[in-house]
Amino acid sequence: MTHIKIKDISFKYDNSKDEALKNLSLDIEKGEIVAILGESGSGKSTFLRIMSGFEVPDKGLIRVDDKNFVDDETYIPVEKRKIGMVFQDYALFPHLSVEKNIEFGISGLNRKERKKVVTQMLELVNMKEYKNKYPHELSGGQQQRIALSRALAPGPSLILLDEPFSNLDANLQQKIRGELKEIIKKSDTTAIFVTHDKNDAISIADKVVVLENGEVAQVGVPDEVHNKPNTAYVSNLFR
User: Fold this and answer.
1) pLDDT tens digits, residue range 98-149?
2) Which is it for the CA torsion 150, 153, 154, 157, positive or negative?
3) Fewest CB atoms within 10 A around its CB: which of 50, 176, 178, 238?
4) What pTM was estimated for this model as a whole?
């Protein structure tokens, strides 16, 4: 499990006058599930891209345990960060079976070790009987679980999730939220997910970070942020 320190992160896109993130600071404890909540344009996706390494901040520090990913002199690229990523559309390989999708990120292991990890991951997400299926044969919720197991298979220091429930219909969302939280907690992995949906944040997160115009508007446990919003913006998000 991983402790993360983020300090004074700022970032501006080349084609923009305004900063997408402004002096953003945050501490994330080992094993926490953190929701980054905000309206469109609040900086959520930019934050996720910076954490993953797809964007380089203009200034600031990102430290995971005792390793600096980003500081004034350091930038560790995406492939060396040991971060798991679950994309909005799950990004499963359609021509690969469930088993082969999970194996994709652990190709460096020998065959016996790969088989062991795949079995562990399928047990974790309760999908052992689906190992020979292909993505198009799975429901949205099942695809999400396989995407999560693929991201967890290499043993990442951190897992990032982009709007994890946006592709699920309303009836499925509540059930899948509970499943996702249970899987992440069982895996002992620190997780950050971005969402515009207050119900995602309330249902899953240990900590909610509300972003407004690239700045942290409020941080707290879900009940605290929900019941004691400190600005009109935060209050509107939880209506």
Assistant:
1) 999 999 889 888 999 999 999 999 999 989 999 999 999 998 889 989 999 9
2) positive
3) 178
4) 0.91
